[in-house]
Amino acid sequence: MPLKILRLGEARELALASRWPRRRGLDRSLLNYAEEIIERVKREGDKALIELTERFDGVRLSRERLKVGREEIEEAYEMVSGDQISAIKLARERIERFERNILEHAQFEYVDALGIRIRREYRPMGSVGCYVPGGMAAYPSTLVMATVPAKAAGVGRVTICTPPRRDGSVNPLTLVAADVCGVDEIYRVGGIQAIAALAYGTETIKPVEKIVGPGNRYVLAAKVAVSRDVPIDHPAGPSEIMILASEDANPHYIALDMISQAEHDPNSIAILITTSISVAEST
Predict the structure, then answer these.
(1) In terms of DSSP bridges, do strands 117-120 and 108-111 run parallel, antiparallel, or are they unpaired?
(2) Is this structure's pTM higher than 0.85?
(3) Which class in CATH covers the domain with range 28-91+123-226?
């Protein structure tokens, strides 16, 4: 689909651009809605997860199917290409090296003139829960970026939650990425209910000490709601990107950058600003 082009040098188009909707903070009604679902998960545990997954994802799960088993992970390897597996392994290795380098240089020891020893060191958390979106597409890169730093830091238990597909399965690329990155537990649960389960636990899902990972506005609201009890990374999503491009910019690269953010959510925003009509039309 071609971009909608506005020529901001023209008064009419400039006036139109000034009326673009601006992003606001989380709607109070959305937070209230998230809190209602969170309270239900706290009260009803797995029963709530199963009923909410059927309601929002159209999938009826049993308690036993909430957790992804080893057999399903092994089958996932048969559904992805060797190139995809190699790419995931390369990404894991590069990120792991980077994270270990950060840890090595972030810790230090200092002895002052009085002989007082001052030391800064980092100690891993016991558990981390990573939310991996799965509604519109597979996001193995999100999984790698969320889980590898935790494993490199020595986190004891790394858990992921990701929405099931219509047939109840989890995207095979997500499962392979989780296995390659050493994820300890995988649950086919998404949305607000997944964040609630990670924060407070159910009969099947044990609570974690921190929750990370992006999601849609419902996941965002849930993370904000539970953050009073469980630390989160930050309120990520929906995605947005603005690219400033000169006349010699490559339209193909611009398009890839815009698509990489716009694919996340119908509410994502991708904007290109350029003085070149040729670049705008080619993108």
Answers:
(1) antiparallel
(2) no
(3) alpha beta
